[in-house]
Amino acid sequence: MKKIGLCSVTFRDKSVDEIVDLALENGLNFIEWGGDIHLKPGDFDEARRIKALCDKNNILYSYGSYYKYKDTDDFDLILETAAALTAKDIRIWAKRISSADISEEDYKIFIKQSQAMADKAKEKNIRLNFENHRVTLTDTTKSARKMLDDIGRDNVYIYWQPQADDSEEERIQAIKTLHDKITNIHVFNWDENFNRYPLIQAKAEWESYIKNLGGDRAYLLEFVKDDSIEQFKEDAKVLKNMLGG
Question: Which GO molecular function annotation, any one, does this entry have (predicted)?
Answer without folding.
Answer: isomerase activity
